[in-house]
Amino acid sequence: QVRLVESGGGLVQPGGSLRLSCAASGFTFSSYTGRWYRQAPGKERELVAIIYSDGTSTIDADSVKGRFTISRDNAKTTLYLQMNSLKSEDTAVYFCNAQHRWFGYEYWGQGTQVTVST
After folding, report:
1. Residue among 27, 41, 9, 30 at smallest CA distance from 108
2. SS3 assignment for 8-64
3. 80 with 73: CB under 8 angstroms?
4. What one-character DSSP code corresponds to residue 68?
5. 115: closest CA among 45, 16, 22, 26?
6. How far is CA 72 from CA 11, 16, 41, 116, in A?
7. How far apart are CA 48 and CA 38, in angstroms?
8. What is the pLDDT of residues 101-113, one digit of tens each?
9. Digit-coded pLDDT (tens) for 74-101
């Protein structure tokens, strides 16, 4: 059974940090590109960061550059998003996504809520 399960979300004060995890199972994680998306209330889902199967990565959202880092551990079949210097505008539901590097089919996690507030 294919599963992507996010964890690590929660309530944090502005300036704080969180690390999101996305545990994958049921497929060959190392052959998949990993992505983190987020969706804030009333807004469209936004691509935050991408990490390819070879470990190279990019931060797609300009608003998080220099603050967020995407990584992966293929041995643990887990995708990570380290979020530092969090701002209120980072408040959103964060979703992980895995897409096969050649064939394009993809899987989604259920999302984890991140709330940045005093």
Report:
1. 27
2. CCEEECCCCCEEEEEEEECCCHHHEEEEEEEECCCCCCEEEEEECCCCCEEECCHHH
3. yes
4. E
5. 16
6. 24, 22, 28, 24
7. 7
8. 998 899 999 999 9
9. 999 999 999 999 999 999 999 999 999 9
